[in-house]
Design a protein that fits this description.
The complex is a heterodimer of chains A (239) and B (260). Chain A is of the alpha/beta class and 239 residues long. Chain A has one domain: P-loop containing nucleotide triphosphate hydrolases (Rossmann fold), CATH 3.40.50. Helix content of chain A is 33%, strand content 25%. Chain A starts with a strand and ends in a 7-residue tail after the last helix. Chain B is built from 10 helices and no strands. Chain B is an all-alpha fold and 260 residues long. The longest helix of chain B is centred in the first third of the chain and has 33 residues. The chains are: A alpha/beta (239), B mainly alpha (260).
C-alpha cells in the first residue's frame, strides 16, 4: 500500500490538520495514534475519501482520494458497527453485493458466506445484528467491508464501543486478516495491538505528525509528545 | 488465536415479552375478574344483562361508529402528521416555527377543550354548524402533532454511520429508500402508531358531548331510559377493552417479531 500526503490541511471551524506531508511505500498496515482531538479520525476519513481535505493532495495507491471512483476501492469499519439493523448479517452483505456490485443472488450469497466464515460468523449468518454480540456485529461489518474486495480497509477505532473481552475477540479476528493481501489503515487506542499488527505508526499531536516510523517507536519514543502519550495511555491488554 | 464466540442471551421470546409466566398471568386476570364480580354483586339492583337486550343494535351501531371514526382519524392524522413532519424539516424557518408553535399549543390543550373550541368557536367562524363533524376535526387536529413526533423519532433513529455506509457502498437514492430507510422506518413506526390508535379510540368517547352517536353516547342514551347503569357501563368498558387490549398485544408481537 502506498500513501502520499502533500501539504494536507483540513479545517472545520478551526484547523484540525496542519500542513501534513508524508510518503509511505509498501506498508501493509498503518496505524494512526494520538489523543482525542489530535485529528487522527479526520486524517483517517480523508484517507478513505469520506471527507474532502480543505487543502493539499492525498493519494492512496496512486488514486486521488477526492475521486468518486476511489470510494469503491475502499472498505470502512466504523466505531459502532454500521450494519443495517433490519437485515441479517448475511443479507447485509448480499444486499450490497447485489445492488451495487452486480452480483447474482447465488454468487452474492456464496461470497458473503465465504467472508462470514473468514470472520468465524458462519453460524451467525441468519441472525440480525441485535441478536448477536457487539463483537460479532463488528466482525460482521468487517466481513461486509472485505466482501467488496477493497484495496484498502480503514478501521476507525473499531473496538472503542466494546468491552475488553469483545475487544480482544475483534482485534484477534483483525490480526488473522493481516496476510489476506489488503492494505489496512487504522486508528486504535490499544497500543499492544498496534505494536503487533501495524508495520508503520503515525503519531499525531494537535494536528501535526509529531513522530512516525516502525512500531518500535512506541517502546523507544524520540519525541517528548509521544513519550508523554505512551506514559499516560493505559495498557489495555491484548494477546 | 481464535476469537472466542461469546453469545449474548437471545432476545426475549414472545412469552417473556408479554411478561412472566402464563400462570402468573392467569392469577392476575383472575384477580381483576374477581374484583368485577365483587362490584357487580354489591349492587342493590340484581345484575341482569337481558334488561339491555332491546338496545343491542343501537349499541352495536355506536360501537361501529367508534371504530369508523377512529380509523378515519388514524388515516387522516397520520397523513397530516407526515406533512407536518416534512414542514418541520423545511429550509424555510417559518414552517419549522409554525410546526413547533402548533405542537406546543396542542400539547398544552386538553382533548375535550380542543373538541369544544373546534365545534363552538372555530367551526362557526368558517360557517360550519355541524358540531359532530367539527368535533371529529378537533380529534384529528389534536392527534396530528403526536403523529409528527413519531415520524421524527423514527427517521432520526437511523444512525449517521448507516448513511455514511450507504454513501461508501454507492447506493442510489432510490435504493437507499427502498432497501434501507423505508423498511426501518416502518418497523420503528408500528408500535407508537398503534399506541396512538389506542389514544384515538379512547379520545373518541369525548365526541359524545357533541351528540355524535358513538359507543359512549348510545350507552348513555340507554342508561337514561332504563337506569341500567351497571350493565350498560360495564358492557361499554368491555367493548373498549376488546379493541384496545388486542391492539396493544398486537403491537408487542410486532415489536418482538420485527423490531430493530
Amino acid at each position: 500500500m502506498k500513501v502520499e500526503l502533500e501539504r494536507l490541511s483540513h479545517s472545520y471551524d478551526v484547523e484540525v490538520l496542519h500542513d501534513l506531508s508524508l510518503t509511505l511505500n509498501d506498508y501493509k498496515a498503518v496505524a494512526i495514534i494520538g489523543m482525542s482531538g489530535s485529528g487522527k479520525s479526520t486524517l483517517l476519513r480523508i484517507l478513505s475519501g469520506l471527507e474532502r481535505p480543505s487543502a493539499g493532495t492525498v493519494r492512496v495507491n496512486n488514486h486521488d482520494v477526492t475521486n468518486a471512483e476511489y470510494r469503491k476501492q475502499v472498505g470502512f469499519v466504523f466505531q459502532h458497527h454500521s450494519l443495517f439493523p433490519h437485515l441479517t448479517l448475511l443479507r447485509n452483505i448480499t444486499l450490497v453485493l447485489e445492488k451495487t456490485r452486480g452480483y447474482t443472488p447465488e454468487e452474492a450469497s456464496a461470497r458473503a458466506m465465504e467472508f462470514l466464515d473468514l470472520l468465524h460468523l458462519g453460524d451467525q449468518a441468519h441472525k440480525r445484528p441485535r441478536n448477536v454480540s457487539g463483537g460479532q456485529a463488528q466482525r460482521g461489518s468487517i466481513a461486509r467491508a472485505l466482501s467488496l474486495d477493497p484495496e484498502v480497509v480503514f478501521l476507525d477505532e473499531p473496538t472503542s464501543a466494546l468491552d475488553p473481552i469483545l475487544t480482544f475477540e475483534v482485534l484477534s479476528a483483525i490480526t488473522e486478516l493481516r496476510n489476506i493481501g489488503k492494505g489496512f489503515v487504522l486508528v486504535s487506542h490499544v497500543m499492544n495491538f498496534v505494536a503487533a499488527f501495524a508495520d508503520y505508526v503515525i503519531y499525531l499531536h494537535q494536528g501535526r505528525i509529531a513522530e512516525h516510523g516502525a512500531p518500535t517507536i512506541l517502546d523507544n519514543p524520540s519525541s517528548r509528545e509521544l513519550r508523554d502519550f505512551m506514559a499516560r495511555v493505559p495498557d489495555l491488554s491484548f494477546r | 488465536m481464535k476469537p472466542t464466540t461469546k453469545l449474548l442471551p437471545e432476545r426475549a421470546t414472545a412469552g417473556t415479552v408479554i411478561g412472566g409466566t402464563t400462570v402468573s398471568y392467569l392469577f392476575a386476570i383472575a384477580t381483576f375478574a374477581f374484583f368485577a364480580w365483587f362490584v357487580v354483586v354489591r349492587q342493590r339492583q340484581p345484575f341482569d344483562m337481558t334488561t339491555i337486550e332491546p338496545y343491542r343494535s343501537a349499541i352495536a351501531a355506536g360501537f361501529l361508529r367508534t371504530l369508523w371514526v377512529s380509523l378515519v382519524t388514524l388515516v387522516v392524522s397520520t397523513s397530516l402528521g407526515f406533512v407536518f413532519y416534512l414542514l418541520s424539516t423545511s429550509r424555510l424557518g417559518y414552517f419549522r416555527a409554525f410546526t413547533n408553535v402548533f405542537t406546543e399549543i396542542i400539547y398544552g390543550t386538553p382533548l375535550l377543550v380542543m373538541i369544544m373550541i373546534m365545534a363552538f368557536v372555530i367551526g362557526p367562524a368558517f360557517g360550519s354548524t355541524n358540531r359532530s363533524v367539527m368535533g371529529f376535526v378537533g380529534l384529528i387536529v389534536y392527534i396530528t402533532p403526536y403523529m409528527t413526533n413519531i415520524f421524527r423519532s423514527a427517521i432520526a433513529s437511523i444512525s449517521s454511520e448507516q448513511y455514511m455506509a450507504m454513501d461508501l457502498f454507492g447506493f442510489t437514492p432510490y435504493q437507499r429508500y427502498r432497501y434501507i430507510i423505508v423498511p426501518q422506518v416502518v418497523r420503528i413506526l408500528m408500535p407508537p402508531l398503534m399506541n396512538n390508535f389506542s389514544l384515538i379510540i379512547k379520545g373518541s368517547a369525548l365526541l359524545n358531548v357533541l351528540s355524535y352517536r358513538e359507543l359512549f353516547y348510545e350507552v348513555s342514551l340507554m342508561t337514561n331510559n332504563t337506569f341500567r347503569f351497571v350493565e350498560g357501563f360495564l358492557l361499554m368498558w368491555g367493548l373498549y377493552l376488546v379493541i384496545t387490549i388486542p391492539l396493544s398485544q398486537l403491537t408487542k408481537m410486532i415489536d418482538w417479531r420485527w423490531g430493530l
